[in-house]
Amino acid sequence: MKARIYKSTGSWYSVKSEDGVFYQARIKGVIKLDNITSTNPIAVGDWVHYEAEIDQPTLMITKILDRDNYVARQSPHNKRQQHIIASNLDQSILLATLKSPKTSQGFIDRFLVSCEAFHIPAIIVFNKSDIYGAGEMAIYDLMKEMYEAVGYKVFLISIEQKQGLDPLKEILRDKTTLVSGHSGVGKSSFINYLFPNLDLSTQEVSGWSGKGMHTTTFAQMYDLPSGGSVIDTPGMRELGLVNMEKEELAQYFPEMRERMNGCQFNNCQHINEPGCAVKAAVEKGIITEARFFSYVDLWHGIETHKY
Length: 307
Ligand SMILES: Nc1nc2c(ncn2[C@@H]2O[C@H](COP(=O)(O)OP(=O)(O)OP(=O)(O)O)[C@@H](O)[C@H]2O)c(=O)[nH]1
Ligand SMILES: [Mg+2]
Ligand SMILES: [Zn+2]
Description:
Blueprint: E1 2-9, E2 12-17, E3 22-27, E4 47-52, E5 59-64, E6 70-74, E7 82-87, E8 91-97, H1 105-117, E9 122-127, H2 134-149, E10 153-156, H3 166-172, E11 176-180, H4 187-194, E12 220-223, E13 229-232, H5 254-257, H6 277-283, H7 289-301
This protein binds guanosine-5'-triphosphate, magnesium ion and zinc ion.
């Protein structure tokens, strides 16, 4: 029998069986896992096989089915381990804010690179438009132009004032969507808006630091009345790129991927090689400097693996 994981809290999982009933389940003995080293064996979004427990209302998970895809981040405690955030996703929304708290462009680019590496379409949604002044609006306009030019959808919303949300409802229909972003950007508020009866806890960002309070502590999936599901996640402080080599990074910038065949050297890293088509495009303003700086920054941050 098949079920999907909706929530994981330590050793117990909330699962929904194929006939639509929720159960509590745990893992039976040792389960054969993928050959990835992760801190959590089962993630929200996973499909599993189960057996009923004798004389118990709970289930035993006997097998994890192969994942179509997953999103993971580097475990903050052990760089060699990854933490799987969610699996079997159709798309991923990055909820960002330009004020209370501020999401940096570097963080957005890191997130987009991560989604590209995991082959998951990413959508950027700026929330809290109600508190943006002229300065934030000017930044938003630049960001929208920059990200749309390289193929990402960008939206501006205010959950508080219920502005700009209808197009997002359309995007969520019949899909499994991961909602991520820093603490305090409004992920749980967004899901509360979609499910007015749910009443997830949300919390004001701290007045003195402008940062979120890490209110949500577990990833959890919710079914949309209109079909599809969304996954609320705990706020991310930073996002470690998982198992990425310096050489592959440029592929995850669509505007670089498109042009790197024109480089003189086929192993060009687009840093300071002669005849680099990517740098030529930056000089002509075809690739924005801001995105290129993010590339260089991320490139320097990737440790060269020593075997
Ligand atoms: N001004 C304004 N505040 C908002 C908006 N959306 C959410 N907030 C507020 O932002 C604060 C943080 O919202 P949450 O939904 O708890 O944020 P979160 O992303 O779930 O945070 P974590 O669970 O900590 O990761 C709350 O006080 C919300 O009321 C908005 O559109 N405008
Ligand atoms: Mg939350
Ligand atoms: Zn190059």
